[in-house]
Write a structure and sequence with these properties.
alpha/beta; single chain; binds manganese (II) ion; binds sodium ion; TIM Barrel; 10 helices; eight-stranded mixed β-barrel; binds guanosine-5'-monophosphate
Length: 253
């Protein structure tokens, strides 16, 4: 109730901010991009996590505002981040499933990418619960328009129960992101044999694979050995505000 009220009235620039989490390419062991995550500190409620406020914002139709703010703020930072990094990189943003039936989102993304001169091919759009929600004609059109513009679609949180393998293959995505809980389970003795075939199936369908929640070198090395394409996790970097990202690590060369 309070969350809803605060979300309705806040000025996003005052209360939201973004944190950036590195995406590491397993072949080069270099940073190839960042996933952008939203954070909210409310003067009244304190820190509220996205796990809590995103579902609420969706149920009250406030998500358009939040997604557009995230996209705009992330795209605005692209040129600066590219200059600091010294090369091009991918920006990955999470989209709310609640919006995937509206073409407002598509228009916003295209306009904003153009306005801030971010090539859509450098942008990855992560979608989760969508796969749960009905895949409507509108969703299909929206995704095809975005893909035609060059945007990349990723399926987020695979392994948490929402996505079936068949849906995965039919979805027009280029990337699948394996959730931390799924990676952790698959690393247990006796279960390791599950991961490599899954990665092979993805590759056979032209899907690249990102593993999330990588916390140490052992897991990183193992995932690399079975063909995982990208790694993400605290081992390579926690989500940090732009000004707190430090580029002196070996994976930033
Ligand atoms: O970053 P954290 O682990 O607290 O994120 C919790 C959940 O909220 C994750 O599922 C994440 O994908 C989602 N999330 C974080 N930032 C955003 C955002 O900017 N937009 C959307 N739609 N979801 C986000
Ligand atoms: O749903 P999504 O994968 O977008 O959520 C990303 C969230 O997962 C981040 O907010 C982050 O807090 C959490 N996360 C990412 N990497 C790690 C990790 O290596 N360890 C732990 N414990 N949490 C992680
Ligand atoms: Mn994500
Ligand atoms: Na997510």
């Amino acid at each position: 109730k309070d969350i809803e009220q605060e979300l309705k009235t806040l000025n996003p620039d005052d209360e939201f901010y973004l944190v950036y989490m590195p995406l590491v390419n397993t072949r080069s062991r270099q940073i190839d991009g960042f996933e952008v995550l939203i954070r909210w500190i409310s003067p009244k409620l304190g820190f509220v996590g996205p796990d809590e406020f995103i579902p609420i914002s969706e149920s009250f139709g406030l998500f358009n505002k939040i997604d557009s703010w995230v996209a705009e703020t992330a795209f605005k930072s692209y040129a600066d981040l590219k200059a600091r990094l010294g090369r091009d990189f991918k920006l990955s943003i999470n989209l709310s499933s609640a919006q995937l039936n509206s073409n407002k989102l598509g228009v916003d993304l295209i306009v904003l990418a153009n306005q801030y001169q971010v090539p859509p091919k450098q942008i990855q759009l992560e979608m989760t619960e969508t796969l749960n929600v009905e895949y409507t004609q509108e969703t299909d059109v929206l995704l095809k328009v975005l893909i035609a513009q060059g945007f990349n679609i990723a399926i987020d949180d695979f392994g948490t129960g929402y996505t079936a393998l068949l849906q995965l293959i039919e979805y027009p995505a280029k990337m699948i992101k394996l959730d931390k809980t799924f990676i952790d389970k698959s690393m247990e003795e006796g279960k390791r044999s599950l991961l490599a075939p899954l990665i092979n199936i993805c590759h056979s369908q032209n899907l690249q694979v990102t593993a999330e929640g990588v916390e140490n070198e052992e897991i990183a090395a193992y995932l690399t050995s079975i063909g995982c394409d990208y790694l993400q996790g605290y081992y390579f970097g926690k989500p940090e505000r732009l000004e707190d990202l430090s580029f002196d690590h070996e994976w930033y060369n």
